[in-house]
Amino acid sequence: MRSNNIILETAIKVILFIIVLFSVYIFFAGHYYPGGGFIGGLMTAGALVLLLIAYDIKTVSMILPFNYRIMTGIGLLFAIGTSAGAIFFNVPFLTHAFGHIDLPILGEISLHTATIFDLGVYLVVVGVSMTIIQTIGEDE
Amino acid sequence: MNNLIILPILIPFLAAAILIFLPKKIMAQRWISALGSVATIVVALFLVQKVHTNGIQSLNISSWEAPFGITLVSDMFSALLILTTSIVSFTCLIYSFKSIGKERENHYYYPVFNFLIVGVNGAFSTGDIFNLFVFFEVMLMSSYVLLVLGGTKIQLRESIKYLLVNVISSALFVITVAYLYSIVGTLNMAHISARVSEIGQPAILSVIAVLFLIVFGLKGAIFPLYFWMPGSYNAPPIPVLALFGALLTKVGVYSITRTYTLFFYHDAGFTHVLLQVLAILTIIIGVIGAIAYWDVKKIIIYNIIVAVGVILFGISVMNIDAFTGSIYYLIHDMIIKAALFLLVGIAIAITGTSNLRNMSGLIKRYPGLGWTYFIAALALAGIPPLSGFIGKVLIVQGGFAGESYLGAAVVLISSLLVLFSVMKIFINGFWGDDQNYANEDKAPVKWLLISPVILVILSAVYGIGTEAILPYISQAAETLADPSLYIDAVLKE
Amino acid sequence: MEILMSIVVGVLFMTATYLMLSKSLLRIIVGTGLLSHGAHLLILTMGGLKRGAAPLLGENAESYTDPLPQALILTAIVISFGVTAFFLVLAYRAYKELGTDNIEQMRGTESNE
């Protein structure tokens, strides 16, 4: 089912990157301000759904050959890894560590293991939402 | 601080996450699940021993101090339930290897199975009322998938009803937590208990107690909220059914027990009498169903309802004998229900029907199956020295001590009728004329028999070795009878 | 403000109940969605509607908001998002397999059909 929707298809090519970039921004902003892995992930999934609306499911899976189930698994492992890591340092489960380092150009940056946990959440959200949408979409 | 508490949740979770990567490698899936399951049993054994020697353990997740963050608490009650859960899930897993079918194994059966264990173990170990909701949802979400996996017509139809009932009860759970939060201003269970006793449980908290009873009663299938269960539990394949029957309703029972012994014990004249009346009605309805049906699955499903009623009757009496009996009976019931479902499943696999009128004479060719079923049936009804006996004796004793003679009598009479209902399966299905069945040769009876035999032996040991086990059970009952033990362990670390 | 919110919650529950009592599966799903929205709004209302600064050390504000209801809502929204998505997939599959979205025609508990 190939639709002939020139306006949407052209606009998507630009908008997609803006949405994905914004979702990445939201993801990192979640460190100190509203945002985070869940919202960022949903936004990325939203961008991919927009792509699915403009093109059909086959084209999209050709452009982005991700296996979203594997993506969910990777996300879960990230989340488990960072939270279970605390056990090896003999502090309660899910306790996070953080530190500050100075980078040449970017200046002082705070590093936080919670970001890795959030990355896991991000991947799980994208993976699960896309799996659900693909399950419905593949039938047609 | 003790990270041991998180492991029964973490190990199945890790196993599930790894299994997502191997959707088509069925042998690897089986091995990883089995290893995870055995590891959970070992950890649970350590946990029980640790709680026995050192008292109630708690873990403030993410290092947030106790009433502010999420706390996991492991008292003897929850540790014992986690141990039983791990054992039951291990046997169901082994049973699944030869009976669940390639189709389901290829569609993420084992990962979802592990997620279900995550939810159940999490619900047993959490010490935070909202976290309990989250683990409930993990458990329910997995149960939806397990129920619908395979996608036959009856499964789809029943899944929709099951899902709808549970979505409504989940919304009600959130609403109830919101009400509770607006009154006590905390979510930590120990802290809630302390605050409730400070303000002495005014009428509004009794209303919330009843709301909790509705929420958990829907999961635990008490009267009149059991209506969804016979239909929904009839749909899934046997290992899933055994898992649901043994674990899911028991999570509801556990939650009722926890909330009614920890939070709402000040106005027992209203809340606990209500619980008692409902428990007695639950027993009666369950017994009627168990006797009326000629479908082997339905008979055992209605026996779940009877057991829920018996356990909750013990809880509602509120004395230490009855608590001990209820905990003892709860664990017994988890083991023996799983065994019965698996045994009935073998009979269905051999005969190809679940209608009792179409099966007979199984004991002639499958004596092992027949006698295992016989012992399991006796244990369920509570014939000494098997495990059902001691629990019921203690519950009845507690009932008489608490002057609930009617309830105690109903529990006693129900045992006889339960015995009748399971013996009906034995007499009609296992005795009688030998028959030839169409797909008889396909059923891998020897392999399937391993799990129920393990469970029945366990149940016999549990009954005969009561002397050794009772200290653990009474430790669990003491915590239920005296909430200050729980509060002190969580808040004053 | 709390009174107004309570009324809104009541209206949401009312609509949800009405929708869930209808026969069409899709309406029922919309009903469950509204029910969870009502529940989320109720958490917020029950936590007390206050204006104030974020509850952080060093803000030195006169009043602080309670962060807990917001955290609870976020969790509950995530969960209801997942359940609703699953419900939609299930309803779609059931519609294809059973050939109906009418809940009346899904009656019965017998296995041999």
Automatic annotation (TrEMBL), chain A:
Q: Where in the cell is it found?
A: Cell membrane
InterPro entries associated with the record: CPA3_antiporter_subunitB (IPR050622), MnhB (IPR007182)
Q: Which UniProt keywords apply?
A: Cell membrane, Membrane, Transmembrane, Transmembrane helix
- Where this protein primarily resides, as one coarse class? membrane
Protein's membrane topology = Multi-pass membrane protein
Q: Which Pfam families match?
A: MnhB
Enumerate the spans annotated as Na+/H+ antiporter MnhB subunit-related protein domain. Answer: 7-131
Give the protein family.
Belongs to the CPA3 antiporters (TC 2.A.63) subunit B family.
The organism is Robertmurraya siralis
Q: What GO cellular component entries does it have?
A: plasma membrane
- What residues form the membrane-spanning segments? 12-32, 38-57, 69-89, 109-133
What name does the UniProt record give this protein? Na(+)/H(+) antiporter subunit B
The record's section on PANTHER family has: NA(+)/H(+) ANTIPORTER SUBUNIT B (PTHR33932), NA(+)_H(+) ANTIPORTER SUBUNIT B (PTHR33932:SF4)
